[in-house]
Write a structure and sequence with these properties.
The chain is α/β, with parallel strands linked by helices. It is built from 16 helices and 11 strands. The structure holds NADPH dihydro-nicotinamide-adenine-dinucleotide phosphate and magnesium ion.
């Protein structure tokens, strides 16, 4: 059997390292063709020495000399810069591109990989949030499959039936570390508290998004584009145990759910092996330990970001792109102690009101919108008198 050649964008991150574990479990099926990272050059060197890819790319060009020197004794092509990441995905032998980098930076390489006909294993949900319509039209044009890695979307994908339309998608949400906090308590939470997710160990940005429920808002948008449903057909249910990863309701009222331990290696492996399932040594669900599965409605008064994401989805056009950019700035500011937890929603909402709306954006419009929304969000952060924004 010919081994599938895999490119991992963001190989040093949470998803990237777990994807390498999946590949290690199936050396007869998968081979690493390319690895990319942003700053963590030593980790990238270690991965390259272990997995021997054809190419490695470091986005931060200052790290290039170190990377080049450390791999000089191996036949590995070494590149640096964002353009090189966008180009490496087009390499002939690559079968699957796992988009596991974080944020808007994933958009351009994902578009290039689609144009080159590479199967996309999509972890980078921001790409779908920013430009879902454009991504879908490219995928149709180039007949490129996009397979979900996000656990909720993988769950839905596993529940779908080709011949039967869905009535509703039910996205489960853990509720994050602040599920039971009052608004008053939320006003004073720290980044250390926010970085402690109860069920999943993930990169910093998505962990903050999970605490603020922006992650769930983004997943609603992602679900719309991945599964072609209307926003009214997507329901969010808070399920703190994270045993049910999401559900599909069909026209007869039957509901199918996918259950499992919270381990991202399962959806990563499924995206690689689809339509087959492969054996795995990962943990198994023990129902004797699941004493209760509980469900509650999300509270968009305490978690405004979820409401803002729904609003952006309804408005369409470049509004989700505006929300994504403002959120990236807000999360970075929160992690740098420049903004309070609740201040994040304010920055996002005000940015939504101030950046020009474009109803049918082109790629160039998304690029301009992203830049303008970041500039606006930074300006809001720097404005004196916006006391509520600051800690
Ligand atoms: P991490 O922060 O752990 O890793 C991000 C990776 O992307 C790192 O390899 C990082 O490099 C690289 N990277 C960051 N910024 C850039 C950039 N500007 N250009 C190039 N590379 C960059 O994130 P996660 O693995 O947690 O998440 C990755 C994506 O997957 C996100 O979009 C997230 O929403 C999505 N996702 C993650 C889940 C999870 O369980 N972690 C679950 C579902 C979705 P470096 O290490 O050098 O900084
Ligand atoms: Mg998810």
């Amino acid at each position: 059997m010919k081994k599938k050649q895999i490119a991992i964008l963001g190989s040093t991150g949470s998803i990237g390292t777990q994807a390498l574990q999946v590949i290690e479990e199936h050396p007869d099926r998968y081979e690493v063709y390319a690895l990319t990272a942003n700053n963590r050059v030593e980790e990238l060197i270690g991965q390259a020495r272990q997995f021997r890819p054809e190419a490695v790319v470091i986005a931060n060009e200052q790290c290039y000399p170190r990377l080049k020197e450390a791999l000089a004794d191996l036949p590995i092509k070494v590149y640096a810069g964002a353009d090189a990441i966008s180009q490496v995905v087009e390499s002939g032998p690559i079968d699957i591109v796992l988009t596991a980098m974080v944020g808007y930076a994933g958009l351009r390489p994902t578009m290039n990989a689609i144009r080159a006909g590479k199967t996309i294993a999509l972890a980078n949900k921001e790409t779908m949030v920013v430009a879902g319509e454009l991504i879908n039209s490219l995928a149709r044009q180039y007949h490129t499959p996009i397979l979900p890695v996000d656990s909720e979307h993988s769950a839905i994908f596993q529940c779908l039936e080709a011949q039967n339309p869905v009535e509703k998608l039910i996205l489960t949400a853990s509720g994050g570390p602040f599920r039971t906090f009052s608004k008053q308590q939320l006003a004073h939470v720290t980044k250390e508290q926010a970085l402690k997710h109860p069920n999943w160990s993930m990169g910093a940005k998505i962990t903050i998004d999970s605490a603020s429920m922006m992650n769930k808002g983004f997943e609603v948008i992602e679900a719309k584009w991945l599964f072609g449903v209307r926003p009214e057909q997507i329901e969010v249910v808070v399920h703190p145990q994270s045993v049910i990863h999401s559900m599909v309701e069909f026209e007869d009222g039957a509901v199918k759910a996918q259950l499992g331990v919270p381990d991202m290696r399962l959806p990563i492996q499924y995206a690689f092996s689809f339509p087959q399932r492969l054996p795995s040594s990962f943990g198994r669900l023990d129902f004797m330990q699941c004493h209760e599965l509980t469900f509650e409605a999300p509270d968009t008064d305490r978690f405004r970001n979820l409401a803002l994401a729904y609003e952006a989805l309804h408005q369409g056009g470049n509004m989700p792109c505006i929300v994504n950019a403002a959120n990236e700035v807000a999360v970075a500011a929160f992690l740098a102690d420049r903004l309070s937890f609740l201040g994040m929603s304010e920055v996002i909402e005000q940015t939504m009101q101030r950046v020009a709306f474009v109803a049918t954006p082109s790629y160039e419009d998304y690029v301009a919108t992203d830049a303008e929304a970041r500039r606006m969000a930074e300006e809001l952060l720097a404005t004196p008198g916006q006391g509520c924004l600051h800690r």
